[in-house]
Amino acid sequence: MLQELMNNFYFTEKEAKVYLAALKLGRSRVSDIAKSAELNRITTYEVLKRLLQMGVAHSAVYSGVKTFVVVAPSLLVEKMQSRLQVAQQILPRLALLNRANSNKPSIAFFEGADGLRTIYEGTLACQDKVILNIANPQNLLATIGHDFFTQYVRKRAKRKIQVKVLLPDTPENKKFKSEEKKSKREIKLFDAQKYPLPNEVLIYDNKVAMLSFASLIGVVVEDKDIVQSLRSMWQMVWDAV
C-alpha cells in the first residue's frame, strides 16, 4: 500500500522501491539497497542516478565505497509544493497555447497499464462535466488496479463530473448499478451475450479515448466532428437500451 501511494505521489514503481529501501536503510551501498528493494544491482544503480538528478538522493564515498542516502519525506512534500507553485504560474500561458490549438485534430497513443491510467487521469480535466462511457469494469480493474480506480472515482466525484455508462448485464455490473448515485454514475445495462465488449470507450469534451486491455494500448482522438459522430452513436444506443 505504501509503495502504491508513493507511485501516485512522486515516483515510478522502481523509483518508489529504491527510495523506500534507501529510506529504511539510511546511508548504504548500492548492493544493500538493491537487496532491500528486491531489484538487481544494475537497475538499482540506474534508478539511484535518476533520484540524484531529481534531487531526492545524495551520494558520498566512504572508505573507498560509494554510498547513497535519500532525503527525508518532508523534503519530498516541499519539492511537490514547489512544483505546484511553478505549475500554477505557467498554467495561464499553457492555457493560451491550448486554446490556440484546440481546433486542430490530434491523436495520442499510450502503452501499458500506466498509459491507460494516464488516459483515465486525463478525463478529470473534462470541461463539460459529463463523460459518456462504454465499459467492462472487470477488465478495467484487473488492468489499472482497484486502488487507482477508487481514488479516480473520488477525484471525479469531487470535481462533480457525471458519468453515463453502458455496461454488460452481469451480476458484478448490477452491483455497480446499485452504487451509481454515490459515485455520480448513471448506468444502463445491455445484453452481455449478444454484444460482447472486452474493451472500453470514453467520450468527453472533443475527445474520444479507446482502451484495449488485452493489448494494453490506448488511443485518444481529439477531433470535433469524429467525437460528435461517436457521441450521437453512443446516444442512440443509450436511448435504445
From TrEMBL:
InterPro entries: TrmB-like, Tscrpt_reg_TrmB_N, WH-like_DNA-bd_sf, WH_DNA-bd_sf
Domain Transcription regulator TrmB N-terminal span(s) in chain numbering: 8-59
Pfam families, per database record: TrmB
Name of this chain's protein: Transcription regulator TrmB N-terminal domain-containing protein
